[in-house]
């Protein structure tokens, strides 16, 4: 499996002939490689929730690539009205198998919505996303979330080995709570911190989180934006 981080919460997973792009906030995020680079080879877009810094460039990417959008019922309905043609609607706790991999939406402690015609519209529940594919490590994108005890149940049920964990504080877990979750609730082989440094309101880096992850066997990696690595 090849993983690329584009800053904030945007990740691409590549395995077999699939390209899964999570929360593609590319334009305006500070990533210098450009949208064409991020969406190369993308077959599916997965959204954790409806905030602008996660929906990002979804509509343009879906239109230009023909990628299938996978997200909550409310989000895919909203983006369908904006021209996204191929959609797979879901909701919290549900799972689907599409193109030989399985996606499950977990709960996340956050909010989800967008300004629509000047009015803030609710867009369903925020989610985390589990991806399971034959012969590949199970991946858990936690989305934007606070700490919650049922993370332990998610670990017991799905046994994710790679975690994309928000650490920027204020709107999500910060270094202390994110490290607590990794140390106490999960058995990750690899953790990639995210949702930091993009805006002035967030923690500027992941250094404190990295120092506080002490669980034996868990590696923390802070990759360079746009540079793919194997996992």
From TrEMBL:
Spans through the membrane: none
InterPro entries, per database record: Metallo-B-lactamas, RibonucZ/Hydroxyglut_hydro, UPF0173, UPF0173_UPF0282_UlaG_hydrolase
Keywords: Hydrolase
One Pfam short name: Lactamase_B_3
Keyword Hydrolase listed: yes
Domain Metallo-beta-lactamase: residue ranges: 7-195
GO molecular function, one term: hydrolase activity
Record-linked Gene3D superfamilies: Ribonuclease Z/Hydroxyacylglutathione hydrolase-like (3.60.15.10)
Keyword Lyase: no
Family: Belongs to the UPF0173 family.
Protein name (database record): UPF0173 metal-dependent hydrolase SCD90_03820
Organism of provenance: Terrihabitans rhizophilus
Taxonomic lineage of the native organism: Bacteria, Pseudomonadati, Pseudomonadota, Alphaproteobacteria, Hyphomicrobiales
């Amino acid at each position: 499996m090849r993983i690329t981080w584009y800053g904030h919460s945007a990740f691409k997973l590549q395995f077999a002939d699939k390209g899964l792009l999570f929360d593609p906030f590319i334009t305006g995020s500070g990533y210098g490689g450009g949208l064409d680079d991020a969406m190369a080879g993308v077959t599916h877009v997965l959204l954790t929730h409806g905030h602008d810094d996660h929906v990002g460039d979804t509509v343009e990417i879906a239109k230009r690539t023909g990628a299938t959008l996978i997200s909550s019922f409310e989000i895919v309905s909203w983006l369908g009205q904006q021209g996204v043609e191929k959609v797979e609607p879901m909701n919290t706790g549900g799972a689907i198998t599409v193109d030989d991999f399985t996606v499950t939406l977990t709960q996340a402690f956050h909010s989800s919505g967008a300004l629509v015609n000047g009015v803030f519209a609710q867009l369903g529940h925020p989610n985390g996303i589990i991806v399971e594919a034959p012969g590949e490590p199970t991946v858990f994108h936690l989305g934007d979330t606070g700490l919650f005890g049922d993370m332990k149940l998610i670990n017991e049920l799905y046994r994710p080995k790679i975690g994309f964990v928000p650490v920027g504080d204020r709107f999500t877990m910060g270094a202390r709570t994110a490290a607590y979750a990794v140390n106490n609730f999960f058995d990750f082989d690899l953790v990639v911190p995210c949702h930091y440094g993009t805006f002035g309101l967030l923690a500027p880096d992941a250094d404190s989180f990295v120092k506080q992850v002490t669980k034996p066997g868990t590696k923390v990696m802070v990759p360079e934006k746009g540079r793919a690595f194997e996992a």
